[in-house]
Amino acid sequence: MSSIDSVLKETRLFPPSDDFRTKANVSGMEGYHTLCEKANSDYQGFWGDLARELVSWRKPFTKVLDESNAPFFKWFEDGEMNVSYNCLDRHLESKANKVAIIFEADDGSVSRVTYRELYHRVCQFANGLKSLGVVKGDRVVIYMPHTVEAVIAMQACARIGAIHSVVFGGFSAGALRDRIQDATAKIVITANESVRGGKATPLKAMTDEALGIGNCESVEKVIVFQRTGTKPDHWSESNNVWWHQLVKGLPDICEPEWMNAEDPLFVLYTSGSTGKPKGIQHSSAGYFLGTQVSMKWVFDYKEDDVYWCTADVGWITGHSYIAYGPLGIGATQVIFEGVPTYPDAGRFWAMIEKHQVTTFYTAPTAIRSLIKLGGDLPKQYDLSSLRLLGTVGEPINPDAWMWYHEVIGGGRCPIVDTWWQTETGSNMVAPLPGAVATKPGSCTLPLPGIMTAIVDESGAPIEPGKGGSLVITRPFPSLVRTIYNDAARFKSTYFPDEFNGKYYLAGDSAHYDEHGYIWIMGRIDDVLNVSGHRLGTMEIESALAANPLVAEAAVVGRPHEIKGESVVAFVVLKGDRPEGEEGKLIAKQLREWVAHEIGKIAQPDEIRFGDNLPKTRSGKIMRRLLRNIAKGEEITQDISTLENPAILEQLRHSAL
Ligand code: ATP
Ligand code: MG
């Protein structure tokens, strides 16, 4: 493989303020390097010490890492612990009355749950699951609105050793059925309805539909949380049970099931951006450790923080940075049921002011859409409580990064651009905010103990400035253990023979800059090959998004007789979608803009405009579908995770 050419030049640098640096959990580059040196010189000692410091063990481990059956690695193998115990019980002594969750419902009503209350509610629901015969190792599918109860359901599973598989509440009955079947789930936990953006979705009815489609014989009971006053159309006395009736009169104390460190905690499907979703299976202790390390180092957790991660519990971000990370470290966190644009695009900013949020973690897609829908709205709110901002999910284009930094962060808050995946379980590459100076669009440096490399197809390192495949060269505790029910796919996808089965292949392209910073360039699958130059999608998209007219852009390659491939760009403007002559004029301007910003080689041959782009339900652009559209092909791929199927039709007819 030839390397990938980098065409975007971004030189702005933002070191942490003296104030932030002095108070930070890891202070200054000396602090960062000290940790890295320890990891380099004594890898197992480094992780072993962290595991003793950040995890409470029932039975201490004696062995850190077992690599004998690579790539099926084992961490802290003979140790015993329980993740729910680590998130609840261990806080009861010192912070039972601390607010664990500030819940803001879709309609704006707010409730607060302390650690003691959360502990009792989790215990009681765990007893409810036990009363239905759920035992360690059983699979439980959770298909819930984004409420406190979703977290309680996950924690209760963890408490009794049941393996949860959370399915985002926006998924269709068909996607739910697939996941129920794949997990052979014994129980499904759902709600009568979910409410988002003022609209109710009948989750119970969709669960019935999923079960009705067939082959879900494993399911013995459906537990229904009553979110709204609406009665479900169908109710089976033998198979359905209301959450509140299930727990009625049950004790609110439940001894945790002591789990082996390697016992699975959950299975969760990837977003499906690049293909059919993979069922990622995580361990108990190693996974949990990853969440704790990153809460401390990347989110620089402080006792009086009000932390808010806007993801849904249906995604890995909602698992690691809502259900487990913040609770494990004892934080006060905001959970928001609704959507950022309801009642208007100022909702996030209003909530930051209202709850005095200090740490705010969201996705580039949310930032870009809020710029498009109301770039001026943040000014109406007092955002001075914020001290740290984060982003995850996709590469953030430097323009959106600068807006986030200036308009939301007041130029004062470091931005942690966190690169990681469902498979990695926790942040892998991200600035430690009191140490590493940030650059817009770069996720900067790997966390101490995370060994990255950028390599060509044979596994040979690629020189800085050139792009290649991002790999992680040593196993780490929070790494995926297997693909559920498909160990062979696990091995061939993540530890391919090309790298002698030794490197974890992330599937993203990236390059190092001259300071050793990592820049994600897009997905390996999406690399374009134009006149012998291999180009990642991120840089061309960032150049387009830097134009003042543009809100968002996605580029794909289309076969071209002479060039090999030509660049086709799908663009969403901040204003209305242009058509006809106006569209042609703007397209011409944008083509010239790209040529000027990053060079003629990256200039799109064709530009198309849409009201939106095809996105996964977790908000990621699905370029594989855009490739079909650019070529004028029918779409026959997996679209089970596509959020907005209607956009495909619009884009199909968007040629100017
Ligand atoms: P699938 O694996 O099914 O195709 P997916 O990769 O989108 O879906 P996730 O695990 O949700 O599923 O997403 C991980 C991917 O998201 C990463 O591989 C990377 O491409 C992208 N990503 C996440 N965070 C960042 C970030 N900070 N910068 C750049 N890319 C990111
Ligand atoms: Mg992926």
Automatic annotation (TrEMBL):
Residues 539-620 form the AMP-binding enzyme C-terminal domain. Transmembrane segments: none annotated. Keywords: Acetylation, ATP-binding, Ligase, Magnesium, Metal-binding, Nucleotide-binding. Residues 32-87 form the Acetyl-coenzyme A synthetase N-terminal domain. Mg(2+) binds at residue 550. Residues 89-475 form the AMP-dependent synthetase/ligase domain. InterPro entries: Ac_CoA_lig, ACAS_N, AMP-bd_C, AMP-bd_C_sf, AMP-binding_CS, AMP-dep_synth/lig_dom, ANL_N_sf. This is Acetyl-coenzyme A synthetase.
